[in-house]
Structure formats: C-alpha cells, structure tokens
C-alpha cells in the first residue's frame, strides 16, 4: 500500500519515482502556473510533469526554483518530467529538443524524459536519442507516452534499453487492462494522465457511493483506485485547496470488491486521441 505523498515506486533501472505528482497540461505561462507548482511543492508533492507542447516549461522552471527555496528542499528532492513533441522526433532533433527543454526549465538534468506520441516511422530514432541521453547520464530515466502494446513491442525489437515508463490515458472509463498487464510483465511502470477524465466522472453514482462510505470526494476515490492498481498518477489542478485534497488519499484503502466495481465502469472511452489514430 502507498502510505504517503513521498512514497516511491522503483523503476526498472533502480530510480525511485513518486507514485503521485502534479500535471500541468494546458496550464498557461503566468502566475497561475507558477503558484500551482509552488503550492504542490509546499504541500509535499515531489513530482512535476510537463511537456514541450504545453509551452509552460519556463514557468514550471521558475516555480521549481522558487518552490524548493521556500520549502527548504533541494532540486534532487524533486522528480521532474518533460516530453519531446511529435515535430522533434528524430535522432538529432530529439537531442536538440531535450536541450531546449532543459534551458527553458533552467535545469541541469531531467528525472524522466518521454516520447509524447508514437508517430509512425519516427519514434525509433527518437528513442535512440533518449538512449544516448540516458547513457551519457543527462537524464535519470526514459520512457514513452501513449504507446499501445504493439508500439511497445515494435520499439523493443530494436531498443537497447527498455522504456521505464508508459504514460497513458487511464481512468475508470478507460482501464487499459491489456497495457496494464503487458507493462507489469515487462517491468514497465504505467502512469496515468487525465486520471479524473477531465472531471467527467465526478458525479458517477457508483463512485459517489464509495466516496460517501469513506467520507471522501469522488476524485479522491478515483485517485486511490489508480494507486491501488499500481499506476503512478499526476492529476492536474491550479487551486491550492484542490491540490491538497487530491493528495489526501493515504488514510483509506478500497476493498477488492470496490476496486472491481470501479473496474466495471470501463467503456474503453477516451477523452484524448487514440494513439492508433491521431493527427498532430
């Protein structure tokens, strides 16, 4: 059982990654972004997830610098993730994209760097670049995002280093059982984006009933379900009270029957694009 906000999972290369963190998808540069990241650090979050395409790496970097100073912690206490965008998938282009992200963030290294989407014909060269960065000690861990099982199998045929993370859309309407099983068997840690389905599940009756039993919010129940599935999760919020509430999930545990009830809500329904059919 994950017992607190600083608890970590050990990736296949021995690097420790927090089970829980803050995502900043679609949070624009500016005070709201900076404050959100600083709130998270202040209240004990140690994992921050951004991406080149979010166009907010500079603000995230500013918030990290200010946040760690105010919290009295060091850069090494944080786990920072970014992702290479589709237009930069290629060996040299990916290496350059990494340098650009580091510069914007104002960091010397990333804890985790991901290929954002499995663009056909391009992700293998990008992966070769990630392997180079990893071998050179420029990044602590490397992985992918939005990869189906067949993408992972294709990549792993030629990869020297197996992805350590696969970050995918994951919530009670999209339980991704095939990917969960494959990643578990291969020692790849699964991570959830959009764990609350962009708020669409907060009035779901089954989840509300479970939430009432534990005197928790539906969001807290879903996030607890994530962790008990062995899935790292990074809910997004910019409001301090919500950032605190999202992380208040370590004082209860769902029963096996409740986990199954939530699993049964699956409809293979996505709020984001299908990795087999996306156009950007």
Automatic annotation (TrEMBL):
Molecular function, one GO term: oxidoreductase activity
Annotated positions for site Lowers pKa of active site Tyr: 83
InterPro entries xrefs: AKR, AKR5G, Aldo/ket_reductase_CS, NAD(P)_OxRdtase_dom_sf, NADP_OxRdtase_dom
Protein origin, superkingdom: Bacteria
PROSITE patterns reported in the protein's UniProt record: ALDOKETO_REDUCTASE_1 (PS00798), ALDOKETO_REDUCTASE_2 (PS00062), ALDOKETO_REDUCTASE_3 (PS00063)
Boundaries of every NADP-dependent oxidoreductase domain copy: 31-266
Annotated Gene3D superfamilies: NADP-dependent oxidoreductase domain
Pfam families cross-referenced by the UniProt entry: Aldo_ket_red (PF00248)
Protein's name in the database: Diketogulonate reductase-like aldo/keto reductase
Organism in which the protein naturally occurs: Neobacillus bataviensis
Organismal lineage: Bacteria, Bacillati, Bacillota, Bacilli, Bacillales
């Amino acid at each position: 059982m994950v017992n607190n906000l600083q608890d970590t999972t050990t990736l296949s290369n021995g690097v420790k990654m927090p089970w829980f963190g803050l995502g900043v998808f679609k949070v624009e540069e500016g005070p709201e972004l900076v404050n959100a990241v600083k709130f998270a650090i202040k209240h004990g979050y140690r994992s921050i997830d951004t991406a080149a395409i979010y166009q907010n790496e500079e603000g995230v970097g500013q918030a990290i610098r200010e946040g760690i100073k105010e919290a009295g912690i060091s850069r090494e206490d944080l786990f920072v993730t970014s992702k290479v965008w589709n237009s930069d998938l290629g060996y040299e282009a990916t290496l350059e994209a990494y340098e650009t992200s580091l510069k914007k963030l104002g960091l010397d290294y990333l804890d985790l760097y991901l290929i954002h989407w499995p663009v056909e014909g391009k992700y293998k060269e990008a992966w070769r670049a990630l392997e180079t960065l990893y071998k050179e000690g420029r990044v602590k861990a490397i992985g992918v995002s939005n990869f189906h099982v067949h993408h992972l199998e294709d990549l792993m045929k030629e990869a020297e280093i197996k992805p350590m993370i696969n970050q995918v859309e994951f919530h009670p309407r999209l339980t991704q059982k095939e990917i969960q099983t494959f990643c578990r068997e291969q020692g790849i840690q699964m991570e959830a984006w959009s764990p609350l389905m962009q708020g669409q599940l907060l009035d779901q009756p089954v989840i509300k009933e479970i939430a009432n039993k534990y005197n928790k919010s539906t969001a807290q129940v879903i996030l607890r379900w994530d962790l008990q599935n062995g899935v790292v999760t990074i809910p997004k919020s910019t409001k301090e009270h919500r950032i605190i509430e999202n992380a208040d999930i370590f004082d209860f545990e769902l029963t096996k029957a409740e986990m199954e009830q939530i699993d049964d809500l699956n409809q293979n329904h996505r709020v984001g694009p299908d990795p087999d059919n996306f156009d950007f």
